[in-house]
Design goal:
With 269 residues, the chain is mostly helical. The protein has 2 domains: 1-33; 34-77 and 113-261, no CATH class. The protein is built from 11 helices and no strands. Helix 2 (35-52) runs antiparallel to helix 8, helix 7 (108-118) packs antiparallel against helix 8 (123-172) and helix 9 (177-231) runs antiparallel to helix 10 (236-244).
Length: 269
């Protein structure tokens, strides 16, 4: 599902900057475009990122931009409904009856946890395996987030480098008034480009990825608690109440309503 807030934020930010820069006359915007400044700020920071990170991490982080614009297509309520449905089925038919449920699940983490339960794995070992997976998931997310935080830190630095370059060019040619304008444009526009890249693009993307990471980790924790409850043979009503504790009070009523709509089976994730 697309995250409209990210799209609105980027588009609105760009439009507001353009309108403010135009100052009522959009022909003024031509003065805010400078190829040299783009090469220094965008190209320089990109090259520094290539030096700073391995190519494999570079590729993974760029792919993770997708999650700044899209969200998972299921919610915590859906996960809880599914797990309560599993608990009901396990109570009626036994844990082995969940093997088909595991096979049909589209979520690999949930599938793995239920399969471990079906295979009769010790509960402590199930918990340990799933928590290790959550830990490495968090580590991967942190790497992607730190990538964009680093780019956000480097962009203004290259803007400053461009400013220094422009000032050097200007000071070298003080006897040629025609060269002062272009040199000053490089000096100031690189700072502008670096600030926009950092504070409108890279730092907000890093923050949004952090939010996505927290959301996914919470869902995984709900899954772990639910899987262990199913394995322990707990009453489905108790499982529901326990898992609803992960939700804010305003969202808890939707759990039972959704489950009744699905006739006690939950939703497949």
């Amino acid at each position: 599902m697309m995250d409209i807030a990210t799209i609105i934020g980027l588009v609105a930010g760009c439009l507001l900057l353009l309108i403010g820069s135009a100052d009522g006359n959009f022909s003024n915007l031509a003065g805010f475009f400078n190829v040299s400044s783009i090469f220094i700020t965008v190209g320089g920071s990109f090259a520094a990122m290539m030096v700073n990170f391995p190519l494999a991490q570079f590729s993974k982080a760029l792919k993770s931009i997708h999650w700044a614009f899209f969200t998972k297509d299921y919610s915590q309520q859906q996960i809880i409904n599914t797990l309560v449905g599993y608990a009901e089925k396990a109570r009626r038919e036994g844990l082995l009856a969940l093997e088909d449920e595991a096979a049909s699940s589209s979520d690999e983490f949930l599938k793995k946890g239920i399969q471990l339960v079906v295979d009769g794995t010790d509960p402590e070992l199930v918990k340990s395996i799933l928590e290790i997976e959550i830990g490495f998931l968090e580590h991967r997310h942190r790497e992607n987030r730190s990538f964009f935080e680093a780019w956000g830190a480097l962009s203004p630095s290259f803007g400053l480098i461009g400013t220094v370059i422009g000032l050097i060019q200007m000071l070298r040619n003080l006897d040629d008034p025609s060269s002062i304008g272009p040199a000053m444009a490089v000096a100031l526009l690189t700072t502008l480009y670096g600030a926009v890249m950092a504070y409108l693009v890279f730092n907000p993307i890093a923050a949004k990825l952090g939010i996505r990471s927290e959301e996914e980790i919470l869902i995984r924790q709900v899954m772990v608690e639910g899987i262990l409850s199913v394995q322990a043979g707990e009453n489905p009503r108790i499982v529901e109440e326990k898992l609803k504790s992960f939700l804010p009070p305003s969202e808890r009523a939707g759990v039972k309503r959704e489950r009744y709509r699905e006739e006690g089976v939950g939703v497949n994730v």
